[in-house]
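Chapter summary example.
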Amino acid sequence: MAVQAQRQATAAPARPRPKRVREEEVLVWPDLVFIEFISAVLFTITFVILSVFINAPLLNRANLDVTPNPSKAPWYFLNLQELLLHMDKAWAGVLIPTIALGFFAAIPFIDRSRHMQGLWFGTKYSVRITVITIIYATVVSFGLVTLDAGDTRLTPLVDFKTEMLTRWIPSCPEAAEDVGWPCLRDEAGAKHLGIVSTKDFSKRLEFEVLGVNWPEDLDNIAWPFNDSIGDWDLGFIGLSNIHGWGGEHLNIPAAMAEQVIPLTLTIVVFPGLIIYTMFRLGWVRTRRDVMIVMYTGVIFGYLALTLIGSFFRGEGQDLIAPWNIKVDEG
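The structure predicted for these 330 residues follows.
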């Protein structure tokens, strides 16, 4: 008996029982609702203080015959309106928001690790990753918008425009229709400018490769079966002049300028660059780190576009300084 008692005394302590699912949960009140209530109070106080110092004039009644200039969407859609200025409308207004929402919904299925789940900044370098990504996404967003408004003077003190960076590309001869080396077609008698926006890749940039002239030889390529599947006339069943596949054409220069270049830069090049750089620095090591970078980049990229649409777009959606924006109070 003494030996048995000694063995029991020297045995390892019993492991604590695992927590039940109920003990791992938190209550809606007060754990969630109280935090939301405090946030609502702080936002209300902030808006009241801002309304004291910032005048938000009420305009006249809406007139269907008069369109405001600039005509802006509600603030929560300004990011999409800003995207419409830089890429294809289908991508900017439908596809990119859908992809972003689908990505957010897929994060729990991509990152299935339960390590530090439910905690803010649950990985070793997550705070550093988040801060660097915020700065990076903001700078890249403002930089790309600035480059796409190449004829805009950036500062009141220095006459610098981003199109100056590409003025080394020569102007196309006015009399020449086909050119060999890349050149930019300027309007007759106008000052030579570099690449003002991505649209210039499909409109002003001209060159020839293997006998193919850019852009005139590639802007009207017929789809397959254009001649066999055309417009249909089904008048015998009450349907006539149905537009089918016929007459469709592919505009490769426009697709490059409005889809391939913007999407490649924003979805592949710049996100891949920051992820690869942080990976080489040893900060990004897990799948969750990658998700933090991508989620933070999307959110603050959209936030930067919202700020640009709110404070940097004037008449005709021109990019101007906030203090130069004038509001017509009617």
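To summarize the output: Helices lie at 2-10, 28-53, 78-84, 89-110, 126-147, 200-203, 252-281, 287-311.
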